[in-house]
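Handover notes (outgoing to incoming on-call)

Open items:
1. Type III pantothenate kinase: sequence verified, structure written out, both below. Nothing else pending on this one.
2. Nothing else urgent.
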Amino acid sequence: MLLTIDVGNSRIKVAVFEHNKQLAFFIFETNEALKNFENIFKKYSNLQKIILSSVGKLDEEVVNFIKSHFQTEIIDHKSKFPFTNLYATPETLGIDRMVLAAGATLIYPNQNRLIIDAGTCITYDFVNNENQYLGGAISPGIKIRYKSLNNYTSKLPLLALSENFDIIGNSTKSAIHSGVINGVIFEIEGFISQYSLKNQDLTIILTGGDTEFLAKRLKSTIFANSNFLLESLNLLSLYTQKND
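Type III pantothenate kinase C-alpha cells:
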C-alpha cells in the first residue's frame, strides 16, 4: 500500500494506492497539513511507503513528521525517470512536470504525448514516441489571469471563474470573463493544433485543478484526469522498484 503526495502551489493532494488501484483521495490547504496527515496515518497505519512530489513549500516539521512514520521517497532531479531528458536546463525543470511526463510515458508507451496541466500555471510538456522529453511551455493559469487584470489596473475588478461567459462581453465583467476564459481555451486549442501538425498520433492528457471546467469546453480529443500527477507518482514508484 502506497501513499502519494502532491504538494502544489496552493493545496496538497494525497491518494492511497494498492498496486494500481486508488483506494482514497484527500485534498487540503498547506496550513492544515499536519492535522490531516495525522488523521491519514491513523486510518492507514499499514502503509508500506510514501512518495512525495513538491513544487510548493511544505514546513520542515511536516516533512519530518511524514519521514518519522513511514519510508519516504521525495522525488528530485536525481530520481529515476522512464524518459531521456533533453531539456536544455534540466536542473530547472519542475519536478511536477517531470512526474507528469513519467506517468504519460508509462501509461501511453511509444506514443507522442502532450501533457497539459491547468493549475496555478498552465504547463505544456511533450514526450515523443522515442521516450524523449523535449520541453514545452508555461503560461499563467486562470486565477492568475483574473488577479493580474485587477492588480495591474486601477479600475478592473477581481473576478472569479464563471460558468457564464460569451465571446462578446457586453459589460466590463463579462468582457473580463470572455478574455480570461476564451483566452485560455484558444491558447490550449492552439497548442494542441500546432503539436498535432508536427506529431502524428498525438495523445493529449489534461490534468490540474481546472481540468473539469476546461475538458467539457475543448474541441480536441483528450484524456482528462485531474489527479494524473498522483497516479503518475504511483506508477513512478512501481517503475523504480522494477528498475532498481
